[in-house]
Write a structure and sequence with these properties.
This protein has 447 residues and is α+β, with helices and mostly antiparallel strands. The chain has 2 domains: 10-176, no CATH class; 200-397 and 408-422, no CATH class. It is 47% helix and 10% strand. The chain is built from 14 helices and 10 strands. It has helices spanning 10-32, 34-41, 45-55, 64-70, 73-87, 93-107, 200-203, 210-230, 232-241, 277-299, 322-342, 352-371, 380-397, 409-421, and strands at residues 117-120, 128-130, 135-137, 144-150, 153-158, 161-166, 178-180, 188-190, 244-248, 268-272. A 4-stranded antiparallel sheet has the order 1-4-5-6, covered by helices on one side. A 4-stranded mixed sheet has the order 7-8-9-10. It has a two-stranded antiparallel sheet with strand order 2-3. A hairpin with a 7-residue loop joins strand 7 (178-180) and strand 8. It starts with 9 loop residues before the first helix and ends in a 26-residue tail after the last helix.
């Protein structure tokens, strides 16, 4: 891609153009083909298809563009889950289809005709969760019927009881626990853990402690204010694409990074409310750039087929697959660029020394990480991204005071521990010329 300004991110440029649109088309195709996939699968899947057809009829007239734009990440996650379950977890198909119906009612509520009703069978451990409408109906183990009365009212039937809810004045029993993010009013910190909204493998990481959520919300708001001051373009991208934040259990409040994004839940971030402020701000930037790379990789070949080889990463204690290392390089390259802008922003005046030290450490780590990957083994797009990152790093290292590729004491310690843990991978490590691994074994040099 050409015509990029020095401050532009190559991946972001792809995502804002054809890659972002292709990703949306991919979601729509998965939804449209779900019925056919279920009916072809047989073995009880027809029942699931019939349930979806009956309960999603009201959204059938909606355009594909509207479905993609209005559907929440939770809705789309369950569409993908349902398709995957046809092959791997058929016992969960009815659960996921119930979640699709519930989250479609939530996502497209404003477009549904008055009187539209859907039936939600019970799912173990799950209540009625309508995140966009900010509604929670306690209903574990019970079938629930939801009905749109008008644009501001819904009613539900549960265990012979009928209740009408005014969406503008929800009582505490039915209000989904959430906090509106300061300086990003379209986003919320959501304090729930329900299998309709989260994958099994990370639902237990979510913290329901109110103090943690309040602390996280305040820090995100302050972080967004400072990000907007230093980098308005990045600020606009985050506000446009991230609307959901989830507090997670803090393993180490002093850690630089303990947060994550989920590939199936594009539009959300899992962040630790126990972080000190600057690591939290960095985590917001970090996770956003994971999100944009997930979107690009969903429709374009970036790293090629997965290989068994594992790589050294200066950011992790474990040996990493190429996918993980490439993601890390992209993310930290963007953090490096962000700190380059932040150091000139008055909003970061109180953190000037922190920003300078952190940026320098990331520069060194990036130079080492880039050495681990052979650019000529990547597909064309992956090579373009690699060269783009390497070129920007070269420009940054020409700044006064930057010494190319020197390892800090912490990086040396990290490398030594890693080599002790993975001695069989020492021959695969590639560092800038002149460095050695423990025990005197020479590191491979790569131009």
């Amino acid at each position: 891609m050409t015509n990029l300004t020095p401050d532009q991110d190559l991946v972001a440029a792809y995502v804002s153009n054809e890659a972002g649109q292709n990703y949306k088309r991919l979601l729509f195709v998965k939804y449209v083909l779900l019925d056919e996939a279920l009916r072809k699968a047989g073995e009880g899947c027809e029942k699931v298809a019939d349930y979806l057809e009956a309960n999603l009829s009201a959204i059938r007239p909606l355009s594909g563009d509207l479905l993609v734009e209005a559907g929440t990440p939770f809705f789309w996650m369950n569409v993908v889950r349902c398709r995957s379950a046809i092959l791997k977890k058929r016992s969960r198909l009815m659960d996921y289809s119930r979640h699709i119906v519930m989250l479609a009612f939530d996502s497209f509520f404003e477009y549904l005709p008055d009187g539209t009703a859907v039936t939600l069978p019970p799912v173990e451990g799950s209540e009625v969760m309508l995140p966009r409408l900010r509604v929670r109906v306690p209903s574990a183990g019970q079938e629930v019927l939801l009905r749109r009365v008008d644009s501001g009212t819904l009613e539900f039937e549960r265990d012979g009881e009928r209740v009408s809810l005014n969406l503008a004045n929800l009582g505490p029993e039915y209000l989904l626990p959430h906090l509106v993010v300061p300086n990003h009013e379209q986003a919320v910190v959501l304090r729930v853990k329900d299998p309709a909204l989260f994958e099994d493998e990370y639902i237990e990481t979510i913290s329901l402690v109110n103090v943690s959520a309040v602390s996280l919300n305040q820090k995100i708001g302050r972080a967004m204010e400072m990000i907007c001051a230093a980098d308005p373009e990045l600020c606009a991208q985050i506000k446009s694409n991230i609307a959901w934040f989830f507090p997670i259990i803090t393993k180490n409040p002093n850690a630089i990074h303990n947060s994550f994004t989920a590939q199936r839940l594009i539009g959300g971030m899992f962040l630790s409310g126990g972080y000190q402020f600057m690591p939290l701000l960095e985590a917001v930037v970090h996770e956003y750039h994971h999100t944009e790379l997930y979107v690009l990789m969903a429709t374009r070949e970036v790293i090629g087929e997965a290989k068994e080889r594992r790589y050294y990463s200066p950011w992790r204690d474990d040996a990493r697959p190429l996918l993980g290392l490439f993601h890390a390089i992209h993310v930290f390259a963007e953090i490096y660029e962000f700190y380059g802008r932040a150091r000139h922003s008055p909003a970061f005046a109180d953190y000037k020394d922190y920003v300078a030290a952190r940026r320098d450490e990331i520069r060194r780590q990036l130079r080492v990480a880039l050495q681990q990957i052979r650019a000529d083994e990547l597909p064309p797009l992956g090579r373009e991204i690699y060269d783009f990152i390497s070129g920007r790093l070269d420009s940054g290292e020409s700044e006064p005071g930057n010494r190319r590729a020197l390892l800090s004491p912490d990086m040396v310690t990290h490398l030594e521990k890693w080599c002790q843990q993975y001695p069989e991978l020492i021959p695969d490590i590639a560092l800038p010329s002149g460095f050695q691994v423990p025990d005197g074994a020479f590191i491979n040099e790569r131009p």
